[in-house]
Amino acid sequence: MSTVAIKLKSGTVVDRKKLNALQSAEMQETLTSLYSTIGARIVIVDNTYEFFSKRSLLAALDSNDPNLDLIVEKAGVQITQDDMDIIKKFGELKNRILDAYDANIPAVPYPFQTVPEDWTVDNNVEITVTHVRRKNNKEYQIGLKTLEKLWNKASPWWANGSKANTHPGYMTIQASGYSRDAMFTSNQINIGCQTIQRYELEQIAQHLGWNIPSPAAQ
User: Fold this and answer.
1) pTM of the full predicted structure?
2) How many angstroms separate the CA atoms of 109 and 175, rounded?
3) Is the C-alpha dihedral spanning 16, 21, 24, 25 positive or negative?
4) Measured by CB atoms within 10 angstroms of the end CB, which terminus of the chain is less buried, N or C?
């Protein structure tokens, strides 16, 4: 059960995908154990690693998420009710400011590339704590941090589509222990003989909650 659920003083966080992967008898035993205490707080998430990540923490702070206490407890941080009240008031103030800003300066949407039919991150991509790879080609993988660096470099350039169609982008990355040149065009990124399609990286970025740039920022 330890791989399926993380028990904290504030409640228990359950990894839905790991729970669903259990055999029926083991799943029933796990659920019985989880709900054996009356009034137990059970929070089911898609991925416990992502739930407890720094990215989720920042998002929870921004939105005054009711599960914030679970995330900070897992991080070993103690917060009081006064702290929670301050976070809530700040969130309300931030939302008022952002609403006023958006009302006067409409955001320009990022120009996402069309995704092929039946292609999804869940079905086509395997994301681990450290790496990303296609499910149909497990011989090649790229570090998660390296991929995010590529996204941060390519996405602002893609957001400004007119330049992306005429000037190839370029950066050097570390992959498989070597320095490699990454060249990105309007539709893809080429790293040696490997290619990352633009829509793949865009969908992964959305899935992982990475920053999506706006053409207005160019």
Assistant:
1) 0.51
2) 32
3) negative
4) C
User: Six-digit token pair at 6?
Assistant: 């993380």
Interior/surface letters 119-129, b for 16+ CB within 10 angstroms, e for the rest? eebeeebebee
Q: Which residues pair with 195 in a beta bridge?
A: 190
Asked if residue 193 lies in contact with residue 202, where contact means CB atoms within 8 angstroms, the answer is no
What are the residue boundaries of the structural domains of the chain, listed by start? 5-104, 121-217
Q: At what angle do helices 54-63 and 81-104 cross, to 10 degrees?
A: 80
How many CB atoms lie under 10 A from the CB of residue 207? 14
Please report which confidence band the pLDDT of residue 198 belongs to, taking 50, 70 and 90 as the band edges.
Answer: very high
d(CA 36, CA 38): 6
Structure confidence at residue 80 (pLDDT)? 87
**Residue 64 is inside which H or E element, if any?**
none
CA 27 to chain centre: 27
Span 145-185, pLDDT tens digits: 999 999 998 998 888 875 545 556 777 877 666 678 888 88
Q: Using an 8 Å Cβ cutoff, are 199 and 112 in contact? A: yes
3-class secondary structure, 114: coil
Average pLDDT on 182-191 reads: 88
d(CA 170, CA 181): 7
DSSP one-letter code for 115: P
Tell me the Ramachandran region of residue 23: left when phi exceeds 0, alpha when psi lies from -120 to 50, beta otherwise.
beta
Do residues 67 and 60 lie in contact, with contact meaning Cβ atoms separated by under 8 Å? Answer: yes
